[in-house]
Amino acid sequence: MKRALITGIRGQDGAYLASFLLEKGYEVIGADRRNGADSNWRLKELGIDKDVKTIYMDLLELTNIIRVLEKTKPDEIYNLAAQSYVAVSFEQPIFTSEVNAIGVARLLEAVRLVNPRLKFYQASSSEMFGQTKTVYQDENTPFYPKSPYGISKLFGHWTTVNYREAYDMFACCGICFNHESPLRGLEFVTRKITYSLAEIKYGLRERLILGNLEAKRDWGYAPEYVEAMWLMLQAGRADDYVVATGETHSVKEFLEIAAEIADFKIKWAKRKNMLIGIDEKKGKAIIKVADELRRPAEVSELRGNAQKIKKILGWQPQVKFEELVGKMMQADLRRLKNAARKRKTY
Ligand code: NDP
Ligand code: GDP
Hints:
By secondary structure, this protein is of the alpha/beta class. It has a seven-stranded parallel sheet, with helices on both faces. The protein has a four-stranded mixed sheet with strand order 8-15-14-13. Strands 7-10 form a two-stranded parallel ribbon. Helix 3 crosses helix 5 and helix 7 packs parallel to helix 9. 41% of the residues lie in helices and 19% in strands. The site of guanosine-5'-diphosphate has 18 residues, from helix 4 and helix 7. NADPH dihydro-nicotinamide-adenine-dinucleotide phosphate binds next to helix 1 and strand 5.
């Protein structure tokens, strides 16, 4: 039986990866930084909270990481832990770098010390491409990050590449484009939209306030992306791969499809120079676009070319954009319907 250690076990990808590896017969150990919140809901929702063993480990604490590696002796490590929210990285650039950049160096140093033969996956990000000039981004596209988050991820990325080259470690980076699901954090725009629309529908909220509706992302379905992570560590040779759908859509498109599924009919209007989305069925303004939610620097469009992983590892996404929006919107309608009955939020 193989043993995997997953950092970021309580996040979206940690939960799906744990479920995927348990299905494959792995023993799964989740590294939990113990933040005090009841953040076990994703593992509970997937019905695996009793099957994943957890251990306290924080990427800020080197000796803690070393002890955890000595104690758990994993065959594979998936480093999914991060301060993963771009907007917060502008407010907390130093903390973001401590976790996402130096945290990767701490972890790799610990691996080098304890067992340099174990396999290591690093969660790199399409945000590293940032202000890209190419229509599609692949493994050879130059990086130009536009946020402290993107910069910190680039450090983690190059550190992983360097440990592979310098110490012959089996270390891979998945350069993942945005991937979403009903388990996505509420701060990210997709889930913020589906959750808030469901709240509005059931009378638990008045309106949804958003920032830049024109930004475009290559949005995929998270459970498919965790399979790509696993495939990388099963390959004959360690390498880096772009993981993406190859399609790009705007925040506005996501919003309009989600609104239609939730049975709203949005008409756009301008009031006092502010863009407003009115539900034509009820004649109520339910969406506002606020300049305060715009970022100091923005990545306007991303679209990945995942030919390499398709060709070498046979990975290909199946879930299309509209289906993804549908899965997320339906899940939040189901959750909020129950909450509305009890008159409390989910
Ligand atoms: P989440 O934000 O849902 O999960 C991140 C996890 O990291 C959380 O469980 C969090 O713990 C944990 N964490 C944060 N700081 C520390 C720390 N100091 N020590 C240990 N653990 C810590 O992210 P996702 O699951 O969506 O993403 C997984 C990884 O993939 C992240 O690294 C992200 O940056 C990267 N990525 C994600 C993409 C996406 O679209 N989802 C795209 C590209 C890359 P807690 O629960 O206690 O807060
Ligand atoms: P990111 O691509 O990792 O930054 O993922 P997000 O889901 O946080 O943001 C995707 C895009 O949506 C970015 O270009 C944001 O500027 C844009 N966006 C517009 N309104 C919002 C909002 O209210 N919240 C978030 N998180 N993003 C928003």
